[in-house]
Structures are given as C-alpha cells and as structure tokens.
Design brief:
heterodimer; A: alpha/beta; abc type-2 transporter like fold; five-stranded mixed sheet; 14 helices; about 65% helix; elongated; B: alpha/beta; Alpha-Beta Plaits; 2 domains; four-stranded antiparallel sheet; 11 helices; globular
C-alpha cells in the first residue's frame, strides 16, 4: 500500500477512463446528444406564452361590431378562428374533444343590446385544463373588447362610449374553474411516471439477461421470441396498473382532482399506453449492449416526452415541427386522454383519435422490436 | 486415466452429428473454416483447440444459436439450418459461463427450465433432479451463492432435465477443482453409457483422454481427429524424455536445445525435459552431442497429447497466423 498521493497514478486512471469513454460510442454520443437536444427543445420548441390558439366562433349575431371583435381577436395573435359551429352542441363538442381551446359565443341580440348601451354578454368558453395555455389569451381579450369597440362606437354613437366596458365579457374557464395547475399536472403525472418506469424496467430486464449471460441459455431453450417478449412485458403491465392506481388515489384524495369520466375507460386506455412504453423499452433492450446504454436510451426518449407532450409546457405553444414530433410520442396522446377523462368527463368517442394514435404507435414499435429480437446470437 | 473401463459405442451406431463444411465469419475473421464432423450415438467426443480456435462457435452452430455462413448437415437427424427449433428440443447445452439465474433459487431455476421445455410433470422432474444432485436441503438457496463446482453440477442437471439425446458442453470444468472435475466426468460417462451423445470442449489433456474420440481445432480448421492414440500416431511426432538429478543441468540443456534445427519443442516438466520433433532422424542428430553427457538419462517415449497439440498449433500458426 503506497500512502503518498501520486499524480502519475491519477493520470493513469484518468487516461484509462477517457479510453473507455471513447470505446463506448453510445455513451460518447449521449454526452453530446443530450445537451444538444436540451438546447434545441428548451431554446426553440418551448414557449410558455402560446399564441394562435384554435378558437371556435359561435356567432348568432353578425354585425360590424361582432366583426370588429373577431378581427381584433385575430390581430392579437392569441386567437385563430378555426371553426364556426352552427349550434351550441357543435361548439361544445369542439372544446370537449380539444379541437379548439376557446369558443367565443356572440348572442343573437348582441348588436342591438350594444347599441342600446345595455352591456350585452360576450361569452368566452376556455378549455382551462391547462391554465398556462389560456392565461395570457384570456387576459388579452379583456383589454381588447373595449379597445376595438371604441373605434366603432363613434360619431353620433360616441356618446355611447361607455366608461368601463361596453360589453359584459363572461369568461367561463371550463374543467378547471379556479385555474389550479395541479389539476393539469397530477393526472399528467400518471403518464410521465409510467413512461419513465415502464421503459426503464423492460430495457433493463432484457439487457440484464444479455449482460449476465443468461440470454444464451434462454436462446438454446425452445422458447419463442414472442413468448420472451410477452413474458417480459406482461408482469410490468401489472406494475404499471399499480403505479397508476397510486397516483390516481393521491390525485383524488390529496389534490382533489375530480374524476369526471369513467375509471373503467381509463383502465382500458392504460393497458395500451403501458404496453406502448414497454414495447419501446423492449426495443431499446435489443439495441443496448449493456444496462448503462439502456438507461441512456431511456433518458433520450424520456426528455422529449416530458418537454414536447404538453406535460410541462403548453402543446400549442410549440412550433409546428415540435408539435409533429410531440404527436409521435405516446405520452402526448395519453395526456390528452387522461385529462379528458378525469377533467372533462370524456367518453370513448371523444378520446378515440388519441387512442388510435396510441394503438398505431404500439403496433409499429412491437413489430420493430420483434424483428430486432433475434433468436440467434448472430 | 479413467478408472473404469467404459465400452466404446458400437461401430455401426447412427450418426448424431453429421455436418460438412461449416463456416462462420465475424466481420473479416473466419472463425470456423470448413469443418466436417461426424459423431456417433453414445460417443463422448472431445473438442480441443486453443482459445479462439472456433470451438464455441461450432457448438453454437450445432444447436442453432448461430447460423452458419456456409456448410450443411444434420444434428439428431434434423437440418441444422432449417430445423433448429426441433434440434433445441432434444439438445442439452451447458454454456461456458454459468447461465442460470443467479438471483433465482436452485429450485426456481430448475422449475423454470422444466416449464420452458414443457415437461409433463415439472414438479416431479425438479424433485428428482434435486434428489440426484443431493441438493434437497439447499433447494431454496440462491444459485448465485453456490460454489463453482456446485454451479457446474446444477447447470449440468438443468441441461439434462428434459432428457436430451445430445449434450453439448462448452468447457464445462473451467475453474472447477480436480475432485469435482473427476466426479463430473464419471457422470458424463454414465450418461453416455445410457446412450446420450456428448460433445465436450476442453483445454485439459486428462479430460481429452477420457473421451472416446477427439478432434483438434486451430484457427477455425480441423487439424486432427480420431481416438487419442490415433491422433498421437498420426502426428508423427517423436519425443525424447531427458531426466537428470540436477535441475540446473535440465535448465541449461533446455536453453541449449531450444534453437537446434530438428528440435521443435523443448518443454521442461520439473526435473525432466520433453524434446520433440517431427523428423526422427533430424531430432536424433540434433540431440546427439548431449546424449553422452554425464548425469543425463535419455529415453525415447511416446509423445503426450499435449506435445502433439502444441506441435500442431505451431504448424497451424505457420500456415494461418
């Protein structure tokens, strides 16, 4: 035992460490890849002040005043009128399915009432499941109505220029009246936790077999790849349900998250979401040569999942390329589904598009992983 | 070496392994290069060769773990390329590295293997295997806690639980003590007597001598095959055994003989020296100046298997290295 500190021994350790770092190509790539990915995502994709939010205009009145209001809203950049429903039910459907963030309802006698100075109601329904996505837009429209109408209310009508506000803007924050962020975060956490744990469990479970040499034994036995894959996935589906139940119970009792929809439907969807993540983990395990690589791949998948899915930042605040990327991720669709079921009380018909997206993802990844899993050591 | 005489299998026994021209490359390197191999039922076939000579790769091709690049043949009557699923059912394979689950108990490991092979009565099979191993009392211990010798016995028990027709053993006794090795080989002979065919790779010469037939592989090519005596005879190697009372004299002689032409190998074994060469006359001429030296006793002996293998390896490296 040499007691003295030796620089040459330290140098030998450091040199060896760098050689090993360079040998492990994937680790080396991750050292550069993860910072670059973070930079791109945080720098370009994430925007906590989302604009151009899809808005439905349910106009039962059409006049110079209503046109001004609509024009003013569009000019504010916060609202894009994407639909003009004819009925209240149609408008309601748009907001429930999440196709629009807002519905602006202009009542039938709006112009007449306005001219009478009766401060008519202007109704803005906001999908407030994510308070961050609607906050600035709602603040913007309150200033806007007074401004744009002041221009129209001129000449003989100038006397009507009202002191505070010519209209009575009624904002209805639906699904989350108090704008509590935990109503948005906590249900989403079910998805985030499952993404993290499910992928890493399977990715590790398989690479462990390879690393410990038990895979060689497994491959010589008459067990089929599909059986191995299912055997690796099914136990963790049960684990996934337990995790989801724990978060859900905490959401309900600790955070007062409402359960507006059917828990049975949520359980049904959970199966496909968990399976999709496990399939991703299984695919990683066929690519990773050791457990460290499997963990790195999981991080590489997890990071965009929380950033681009709409969990941390409003989905509609992101540029289009980031939204397209987000649409690929299972977490994005699961978040919409779980928030829809718990907060909006959505049923199967409202969640169908996102469920189909999950199914498509699951199918593609399963095929990839089954093809990647070789029954030989070639 | 073997204490009991084990009957060699009948000459007309059917071929369990019959492959021709097996070839496998990894990248640029040809790891196995055109190997032909015939193993008859009930034979213990020793697979010898230096590290990296392609033994493990050949074994893996035989049981369908690797697909050969070229070559064809049958294993247990099934085509090794297209029928590997059927082969797997009838082959027991013991990998070089312990490949049962270290974090499962002995019983759990056996139960897992029994179920994967779809044994009719898995519980009974596990119980019988535990009894045979004498591991009933330790059945709930984790497999990872076992010593090297016990791990090897467990792995063997797991490999034969489904009553395979062919047993592939890849360096089964590496790192196992001599007593455990001998017990292991007694068991292999017992299994072969009951009709099981065994292909076993090893580095130990004493183990090679316990095989019915052996073959020698170097640089992916098969250099020799037959019984131990046949392989020794075919090599044409001549060996002189020199003994002396003085270790220094032996050491000096070893140095002096090493570079003589006609002398291929000089290997000290304690106070004796093995001096070998392929050409009897050339070797005789080479050692002649020392034959009369006082204190040295010269004897012409049959070369050992080890001498023969090292001789073949040197020849092979001249050709391929």
């Amino acid at each position: 035992m040499t007691a003295r500190f030796s620089f040459s021994r330290l140098a030998a350790m450091i040199r060896k460490e760098f050689i090993q770092m360079r040998r492990d190509r994937l680790t080396f790539a991750m050292m550069l890849g993860i910072p670059v990915m973070q930079l791109v995502l945080f720098g370009y994709a994430i925007n906590s002040d989302p604009k151009h939010l899809p808005t439905a205009l349910f106009a039962q009145d059409n006049s110079v005043f209503t046109r001004s209001i609509v024009k003013g809203m569009e000019n504010s950049d916060y609202f894009d009128i994407v639909a003009k429903p004819e009925t209240a039910a149609e408008a309601d459907d748009l907001i429930r399915t999440g196709k629009v963030q807002f519905v602006l309802q202009i009542p039938a006698d709006f112009s007449r009432e306005l001219q009478r100075g009766a401060r008519p109601k202007l109704l803005l329904d906001a999908d407030a499941t994510d308070p961050a996505a609607t906050g600035n837009a709602v603040a913007g429209i309150q200033l806007l109505t007074a401004q744009v109408l002041n221009r129209d209310l001129e000449g003989p009508l100038a006397s009507l220029r009202p002191a505070p506000d010519p209209v009575n803007l009624v904002i209805h924050r639906r699904y989350n009246a108090e704008g509590r962020t935990e109503l948005n975060i906590v249900p989403g956490l079910i998805g985030v936790i499952l993404t993290m744990t499910m992928i890493i469990f399977t990715a590790l479970a398989m690479t462990r077999e390879v690393e410990r040499g038990t895979m060689e034994n497994l491959l010589t036995m008459p067990v089929r790849p599909f059986e191995v894959m299912m055997g690796k996935i099914l136990p963790y589906i049960i684990v996934g349900y337990i995790q989801a139940a724990v978060v859900l119970a905490a959401a309900y009792w600790l955070f007062d998250v409402p359960i507006a929809g059917s828990l049975g439907l949520l359980a049904f969807v959970l199966f496909f979401f968990v399976a999709a993540n496990l399939a991703v983990g299984f695919t990683f395990s066929t690519l990773a040569r050791n457990q460290l690589q499997a963990v790195q791949m999981t991080i590489f998948f997890f990071l965009p999942s929380i950033l681009l899915s709409g969990f941390m930042f409003p989905f509609r605040g992101m540029p289009h390329w980031a939204q397209w990327l987000g649409e690929v991720l299972p977490l994005t669709h699961f978040l919409r589904i779980v928030r829809g079921i718990l907060l909006k009380g959505n049923g199967i018909s409202e969640i169908a598009p996102d469920l189909l997206a999950l199914l498509a993802f699951l199918t593609v990844v399963s095929i990839v992983s089954l093809n990647r899993f070789r029954q030989t050591l070639d | 070496m073997s204490q009991t005489h084990h009957a060699e299998p009948a000459a007309d026994a059917p071929l369990i392994i019959d492959v021709q021209g097996l070839t496998k490359s990894f990248g640029e390197t040809k790891v196995v290069d055109g190997i032909d191999m015939q193993v008859a039922e009930g034979e213990i076939y020793g697979f010898l060769g230096p590290n990296g000579s392609g033994k493990t790769t050949t074994i893996r091709m035989l049981c369908g773990l690797l697909t050969p690049d070229a070559g064809a043949g049958t294993c247990l009557g099934h085509d090794i390329i297209s029928d590997s699923a059927k082969i797997k059912l009838k082959v027991g394979y013991m990998t070089q590295r312990f490949s049962l689950y270290e974090d499962l108990s002995i019983r759990e490991n056996l139960a897992f293997v029994a179920s994967i092979y779809g044994l009719k009565k898995p519980k009974q099979a596990v119980r019988e295997t535990l009894e045979k191993l004498g591991l009933e009392t330790r059945a709930n211990q984790l497999a990872g806690a076992l010593s090297g010798g016990w791990k090897q016995r467990l792995a063997l028990a797991a490999a034969i639980m489904h009553e395979p027709k062919l047993l592939l053993l890849d360096e089964p006794t590496a790192g196992v003590d001599p007593k455990a090795r001998r017990d292991f080989w007694d068991e292999i002979h017992q299994l072969a007597d009951n009709g099981l065919t065994v292909l076993v790779s090893t580095h130990y010469m004493d183990e090679a001598e316990r095989c019915h037939k052996i073959c020698y592989l170097a640089y992916g090519k098969l250099l020799a095959r037959g019984t131990v005596n046949e392989v020794i005879r075919q090599s044409g190697l001549v060996t002189w055994l020199v003994s002396s009372n003085s270790q220094r004299q032996i050491n000096r002689l070893a140095r002096e003989l090493a570079d003589r032409s006609g002398v291929e190998m000089v290997a000290p074994f304690g106070a004796t020296l093995h001096v070998s060469g392929a050409n009897d006359n050339a070797l005789e001429a080479a050692v002649a100046p020392w034959r009369g030296e006082a204190g040295l006793d010269w004897q012409k002996v049959e070369p050992t298997l080890e001498d023969v293998f090292i001789h073949m390896m040197q020849g092979a490296s001249d050709n391929f290295g």
